[in-house]
Amino acid sequence: MSTDSPQGGDSRPTLAEVARTAGVSEITASRALRGGTHVARRTLEKVEAAARALNYVPNRLAGTLAGGRSRQVAVVLPSLSNSVFADVLNGLETHLEQAGHHPILGVSNYDPDHEERLVADLLSWRPAGLVIAPAASTVATRRMLAGAGVPVVEIMDIDPAPIDMAVGLSQRAAGRAMAHYLIGRGYRKIAYVGHDISTDPRATTRLDGLVQGLSEAEIKLAATVILPGPSSVPLGREAVARLLQEVEPGGLAVCFSNDDMAVGAMFHALDAGLNVPGDIALAGFNGLAIGQALPLPLTSVASRRDEIGALAAKALLARFAGEDVARVQDVGFRLIPGATT
Q1: Helices (H), strands (E): how many in the chain?
Q2: pTM here?
Q3: Using one digit for the tens of pLDDT, what is the confidence trace for 254-268?
């Protein structure tokens, strides 16, 4: 019996109609539309042509509920407002699509409660796996992920112990590396500017690493300015203006939670007639194209985002195939010296 039979006057074409049009059994039509395993090429072509002619769309949920395997992968990201997570999604989507899987995306906007609702909703659709760049996740979210019954990949940060698998870099090591770099450049007056890190655990961890690296040279942050809201160019411009009300320029180096905020600081410096890096040095994170396109390329840390997405997809696909996968995969990072320090 077809799992696609119309109910309540539903006029959508059914699997049975596709099979009749192609002149094959429903079982053969189903196999053909699920990837063509053990189906002759000529038969596959006839079924695909019939499906196109009838505008047939398979009911994947029905197949999953009947014991079939979902082809969907749930993805929860905190933001798509800049290219950071768009790059991750590109690497993830490319490899999943090549293997016949499809990402279903939810954006938490760095809101732990919204993230919790997204995870619950996406898991209710019984995906094959789940990829998440956590916000400051709630206890309930962690419990749901631990009991999901599907492979789970946490991306971007490998410092916390993962629930299942993790792919990313040590955010703490990245912050510490930037501290060592600035110290090596001769800076001793170093400040931090960031967005609302209470909802962004990766930014918090980088700040911890920065403070740790500075303390190893017996240096303390000259000032810290953290403004509410997501990282953005306007927020960076506003925040550095506030910083300069507290700290005099001249030999000052400022670390930003992300490149877009550092770019905003560059705009403020240009408007205020400040010399970069003479009056104020700028250092960001993520190695975004906008930072490298400035007249003075931005000092930053390249976070290898596309590679993180690709490895997360490969980890899931390997687990789907019953293969062993490393619990933690470290893609590392690369410090970009730039011209702003």
Answers
A1: 13, 12
A2: 0.80
A3: 999 999 999 999 999
